[in-house]
Amino acid sequence: MHVLGIDAGGTKTVCQLADERGAVIAEARAGGANLQAVGELAVEKVLHDVMEEALDDRRIVPAAICLGIAGVDRPEDERVVRALMKRIGYQARILVVNDALVALEAGAPGEAAVVIIAGTGSIAYGRNARREAARAGGWGYVLGDEGSGYWIGRAALRAVLREADKRGPVTSLTELLLKHFGIKRAQDLIHQVYQETPNPATIAALAQCVQQAFLGGDPVAIGILRASADELEQSGLSVARRLEMIGTEFPFVLAGGIFRAVPWLHEELNRRLPLAAPKSDTRLLDVEPALGAVRLALADARGERIVPAYKLE
To answer: Each residue of 78-135: pLDDT tens digit?
Structure first.
């Protein structure tokens, strides 16, 4: 028996082909596939490409495919993904879940836990010992994604423009962002942001500039990252409280590229969360989230129910 596990986020998509023991045989990568951000046709192309590359002409018919996709958390979203998988033509059991569950399973397989994801976007998601689930955030870059890479990058852009307007303090972010875009004046950011139409991942990449300014002691950058930590902490604790996990032993799994691009955020949440939730600990996800999709696909192939139901509130 073989399965495919797919983690499709806002910036990248990873597909792993694994055997019945969960050993990964092959892996393929492509760009982001957030259904709400890039649309149905773009997601279909990315999924088709990564699955074809992972299988690579092997005479393997997957028994199950688990797709963890950012922006998929409603029945209508699942129907869209199932329809596009039917068009792609794979005759396998299909499990469609939010990418947060995939990351949770990768970092805390089978455990009661809360995952805090901070990449291009952000979301907190958890399950308790009663197999109940809850989430906070994940509303997309227009409505939310507080504390995410996009949120940090947008805050940096606004700080630079406030300095240019003499409405805000002088910040080293100005020099760093102008250098990043290869321009000379803050006014030229209008062209970069609007006419060049950068996607959210492009704005999220500015988080590295904020990290650099933070290390240099820039007060504006320090304020941005402290606010990011506040948002991510609040999201994670909101999930833990609603699932009645505060005071019990469980891990917070920190996942997403921002925790590596901005190491201070990892360090700060590692300090804060155990204080706010006694008996909890934190762990940085150190494997591909797609491995969680592999585990979920294997369980689905065996007929096991592994998707927790959202707690009624």
So the answer is: 777 777 777 776 777 888 888 899 999 999 998 999 999 998 889 999 999 999 999 9
Q: Does residue 7 contact residue 37 with C-beta atoms inside 8 Å?
A: no
Residue (of 60, 96, 69, 85) closest to 9 by Cα position: 69
Number of domains in the chain: 1
Closest to 105 in 3D by CA, of 298, 302, 313 = 298
Token pair recorded at residue 133 = 């689930």
Chain Cα centroid distance, residue 127 = 17
Residue 186 within a domain: no
Biggest distance spanned by C-alpha atoms of the chain: 64
Domain presence at residue 53: yes
> What tokens does 22 get?
């969960």
Domain holding 33: CATH number? 3.30.420.40
User: What type of residue sits at position 8?
Assistant: A
pTM here is 0.87
Asked if the structure places residue 281 within a domain, the reply is no
Residue 262 within any structural domain of the chain: no
- Tell me the two tokens of residue 76: 């209508």
- The string of DSSP codes covering 200-238 is HHHHHTTHHHHHHHHHTT-HHHHHHHHHHHHHHHHHHHH
For residue 35, is pLDDT > 70? no
Q: The domain containing residue 87 runs over which residues?
A: 2-108+288-310
The alpha-carbon radius of gyration of the chain (Å, integer) is: 20
Using pLDDT thresholds of 50, 70 and 90, give the confidence band for residue 44. Answer: confident
For residues 276, 208, 10, 202, the Cα torsion angle rounded to the nearest 10 degrees is 150
